[in-house]
Design brief:
The protein is an alpha/beta fold. The chain contains nine helices and 18 strands. Strands 3, 5, 6, 9, 10, 17 and 18 form a seven-stranded mixed sheet that branches. Bound molecules: zinc ion (2 copies).
Length: about 350
Amino acid sequence: MKALIVSGTGEQPRIADVVLPPVGPGEVRVRIRAAGVCHSDLSMVNGTLAPSYPLVLGHEAAGVVTEVGPADATGRVAVGDHVVLNWAPPCRECWHCTHGEPWLCADGGRPSAPRGHLASGEATHVTLGLGALAEEVVVPSHAVVPVPADLPADVAALLGCAVLTATGAVNRTAGVRPGQSVVVIGLGGVGLATLIAARAAGADPVIGVDLSETKRDLAMAAGATHFLVSDDKIPKSVRTLTDGRGADHAIECAGRAATINTAWRATRRGGQVTVVGMGARDDLVSLSALDIFHSARTLRSSVYGSSDPDRDLPTLAAAVHAGTLDLSPLITDRIPLESAPDAFDRMSRGLGARSVILFD
Ligand SMILES: [Zn+2]
Ligand SMILES: [Zn+2]
């Protein structure tokens, strides 16, 4: 099958033929219908994360189950089921899983897993246990979540990473309430989905911040009430829009120390900063001890939206189905697999929202 692979840190992603292993016990084969290109895929390519190579990219996808493994089939999914892939399937047995925090499962967190091989025989690895920018995946059956068959595949794909992450950050981690002010910093796919989720939660104002003026129309379409181009006056501009106090919530979606610092300073005394962006190991955030005490702010991260995908993905799918969650502003490019390298180029230059690869 065809897949988008990268051979090493900083290499250009390219299409290659990959041979997947047979479907084993407790596994399923999924024919991918649509897959998003997420910033974490770029982090696999540029070395922010440290996966093993050659690596099949992709972890945000929807498809159809075409084969269920032998012997101990769990009965969770059947051939023909439409599913969304889950890149952090919880084990349900570790301390975190049995204490209501499946998103922190002790079994997760590895950037890549060995699976399949190239035509040359060289072993390949798959992103986050999935490798979804490919015509097919072979994954554990608990890494797929059934969704209605008539959910559009492009939208369904985004549920698995950007949308679960964003809605979870707003509703579960931050706990945004109606009438609260929210500033979202960094308007890639997750940031735009966070604007949609904040507006759906009743937040007002909802302020989008990005380095690029080109994100203004996307931000407003996603539900922002205001858009600000990032500069060193963002905290002051946010205070102006929030009766001089600063925002109740700042949600940082860029994964950089500088923007975490901006989020901190744009938040009111007693407010909450939620870090969604995944940054680099050596990018240090500096806050003064007096400021931490005096500001009474909370700073916490949101891993996979503090969500349980088995519980929350069907709820999101139902909301899309019912028309109460409109994700159409998120998708700016629908392209074939052959054009996926261009999508990485656009993303690295901060252009557009989500590019979705369509396989049908
Ligand atoms: Zn992602
Ligand atoms: Zn676990």
